[in-house]
Batch of 2 targets.
Target 1
Amino acid sequence: MEEKCEGDNKVDDVMLPGFRFHPTDEELVAFYLRRKIQGRALPIELIKQVDIYKYDPWDLPKFATTGEKEWYFYCPRDRKYRNSARPNRVTGAGFWKATGTDRPIYSSEGTKCIGLKKSLVFYRGRAAKGIKTDWMMHEFRLPSIPADSNPPNKKFLDRTIPPNVLLL
Amino acid sequence: MEEKCEGDNKVDDVMLPGFRFHPTDEELVAFYLRRKIQGRALPIELIKQVDIYKYDPWDLPKFATTGEKEWYFYCPRDRKYRNSARPNRVTGAGFWKATGTDRPIYSSEGTKCIGLKKSLVFYRGRAAKGIKTDWMMHEFRLPSIPADSNPPNKKFLDRTIPPNVLLL
């Protein structure tokens, strides 16, 4: 029996590339960060908790579950820096420095602010003499914990997305 | 029989949001655009062919198969504009204007240029008096068709990604 010829329109049975984990800011704060803070586990550990300041950005991708040029981590907020003059966000080889101001993340269903986003750039070396690199991260946090939500896990966590190699 | 108590670590059977079609530049040119030019059909029509200049950007999302803030289209290249003084990329309500120069897209396996990317902004009104909007598109094309590839479909197509509402 001869195979049916479908000419140029023959459909290949191929895998379609391009589908990946690429959450919106809203999904990151309203689902992943909120659930983490509430201590509600997910079927897959899609985002691992890592103290990212213990590592330089190029050492972080290997800890991530998913990602090619962007990686997602939960990172605990370290209270000791809050009222301290000690430079924050320092790693072995350099430091993370915020760029611009924190931007609000609004719910797509309304004008409610559901989170805040801070963008940071990694500098090699120490403050004042640091050399800017292409490593960026976007840090997400909840704006505040409403009194009525009573989360089981009081530890406040940053949802941190380091590092992202910028395409120059 | 009593249900096993898993305490705070109880795993919810939930859908994990954040998985979507978000191809890399390389996937767009090396797979989707190349196959389109070669006339090789895919099991799903993930990217539709639309003459995008017949529409204003806000009318385009409804034609797309997938996308929330980014939409993907194939758009035929219109040869008549090439040697003409007539303004190119004009729509009913405005026009698309290139911003910056074309950027090469390199294969992740080497330094070979596999495509070119042009970014454009939509302006309301007519040239010189146009008012800039937040609508952007990224246009992808193959750098050239090598003599030995002999594609079945000679029509040269742009892979166009309009429009993308920029988050301000």
Target 2
Amino acid sequence: MTTKMAINAKDIFRNQHRMIKFIAQSIRLCSNQSLKAAQAAQQLQKSSVDFEITASVNTQYTHAPEPVKHDKDLGHLFKASQLTVRLATPQQLQPKPDNDEELGFGRLFTDHMLKIYYHKSLGGWQKPEITPLENLVMHPAAKVLHYAVELFEGMKAYRGVDGKIRIFRPDMNMARMNLAAQRSGLPTFEGKEFVQCLSRLLTIDSEWVPHTDTASLYIRPTLIGIDPTLGVASSDSALLYAILSPVGSYFKTGSSGAVSLLADPAYTRAWPGGVGNRKMGSNYAPTINVQKEAAARGLQQVLWLYGEDHQLTEVGTMNIFMFYVNDQGEQELITPPLSGLILPGITRDSILNMTRQWGKFKVREANITMPMVCELLNQGRLLELFGAGTACVVSPVNRINYLGQDLYVPTMEQEKPVHELIRETLTDIQYGRVDHPWSMVID
Amino acid sequence: MTTKMAINAKDIFRNQHRMIKFIAQSIRLCSNQSLKAAQAAQQLQKSSVDFEITASVNTQYTHAPEPVKHDKDLGHLFKASQLTVRLATPQQLQPKPDNDEELGFGRLFTDHMLKIYYHKSLGGWQKPEITPLENLVMHPAAKVLHYAVELFEGMKAYRGVDGKIRIFRPDMNMARMNLAAQRSGLPTFEGKEFVQCLSRLLTIDSEWVPHTDTASLYIRPTLIGIDPTLGVASSDSALLYAILSPVGSYFKTGSSGAVSLLADPAYTRAWPGGVGNRKMGSNYAPTINVQKEAAARGLQQVLWLYGEDHQLTEVGTMNIFMFYVNDQGEQELITPPLSGLILPGITRDSILNMTRQWGKFKVREANITMPMVCELLNQGRLLELFGAGTACVVSPVNRINYLGQDLYVPTMEQEKPVHELIRETLTDIQYGRVDHPWSMVID
């Protein structure tokens, strides 16, 4: 399995994980998929890792989320200790997918879901319940269907090398979700209690967490306003729920493994005074047609620009990072600052924290503009461009179509690409190949 | 009932309408509400109308909506001739409200609804059906609940002086709805066929159309994407539906009958490259919290500003109009142009068309800025400021809180306010006091 004689502790973990995965796959797949996986594993093994994973979080760089401030008239909060469970009958259980490569993104769902209703008229949050995955029943005037009173989070459960299930920095998701609730006139809640309920759901549906490190179980916490009234106003009834979906990779990439982008200044994702920094449904509907246009032009994602200087803000549904040689001749990783225009990504925050701890290159939060990208490309100083997010971890970019011109970015041509190191480091934490405080084990 | 000796044809119609209304109210109300209505009617009678209603539409000013362009892969369209009806059982029928003043906005719904499903996998649009008003059942991953894949229209059915039910310029709503569908990656449809289905629904629930000209039956056509998949992408399944709600006045006003506004440049409703000119749910969720803030400051609506020069774009969910004395010393009605930042209101279009036909003052589409408002107020040249929309027809503004300062607008202090003339003219058309091609009678 390895050509290197000196095997360090991390490699042992990685190989151990692969063994478990191989066994699991042999049992589950009985197909040539395992062969492919083995080949892919061998391929991966060839790359060497330059950077150490620091099994700690440097508080200098991490901003732990602040406790949520609840509205005075919120009413009572829910507690995980009140959780009730109604299990699916054997007849309701769905067959689990036996081919991770055909999972796609968010098409299959597990057997159970978590639901917590909020009714101001009943005093606040109701008791959390886990039920079989079932359709939601709502009044046709429900605010969510008219005024987009809705927000969500994206998390993942990973099957670790030790067979345990892990989730990644859930406190960050909970903090962000509560900020979005506040911005939407929806009720806030205690994130810890929700994560405890979620852990129970994950335990119940644990067999849905793929036994591989090329897939995971996507967690979709959602909060919707369900008041059956047509006034554009806060919703006095809401439903907080979570569904789970085993997922492969989110994005279709070209044969290179990288994505091509449409950068058209005619479209804007967010604006000062808007909600571009909150994970609200309303940020997404307006992007669908633009994404369609990108696809029609043979491009895989949209690079969202802002302002007269064509600042890069996000790519698809990801934060954007650029690795380049700065004016001082130093290698630097740069990403746009949290100005209110971009989503405060948890992968983004983790990458900034990690790479600052590495100290191997400069790390900076500052605006990147398209003219800057063009100039760096002309001078051969742009090394890598990639998106970062929960769904894809990192997603390298190799081409941008900008003002009718194709800009080729050499992201995939670097010998030791930084985006690959970042991906490996993050997935090492997520799949438990190293212990790390960002990983939370589901008992 | 009238102090004037010369009663023209319009007054006859108006009085006839009031008689019908009085009889209907006497039967339905048996309360002191009818007395109040009579007093209000007498009050109204005292004002005189300066401007003639032209019982025609000047094509010079009206832009008839263009036919919708359907996507090639849309599949088959639905036809009103395929409509099926499942009536509510007597047990399902809801009691009708017997007090129009307590209707509020969009809290009560009629007995039936219209539903038309779209499934690309089944070839396109399915057959339209009218059913009892019932809850919608949808998968918890339905795109509408996550990415705000939703849009709507606002229309009204009016009980005319002749007892007939009328709707106002439905072709305009249908054109706008199809534009929003295109922008949202949702399927388009033939507006005429939908209006025919809607007419049938109105006939079935006709007794819900209030017998008064202070209330109406609000029509809420809605289109939502219901694909149960979590990719941010076009929805291959959709539901087009309509619900009906008897409504009084939309806005709470101060004792003066006018509204006060919060104008805070920190919040932006729409921006270039966004979807501010489409009636999509995503434009509304971000406004709820700002509206809450306005209410907390004792103000009734939000005046949405844009840009460094603080352009007035919309007020609450309405278009904005200003009547003032321009630099040439002429009276002028001005409203922001359809720049992509504001909703192309049907009331807005009607007001522009009507007042241009009147030819009594200048009418112009141009930007209005807050500095301009302040200067005009200082010089005593700002006469009236009002919002215009389907829900409220016109809504006069008497105060703006701008940068911490209260600006008092003399809208309610004009002797013959233009906004009142506009309201009367529009409601005369809507309630059939005059025949007009903008009114469509439901047979």
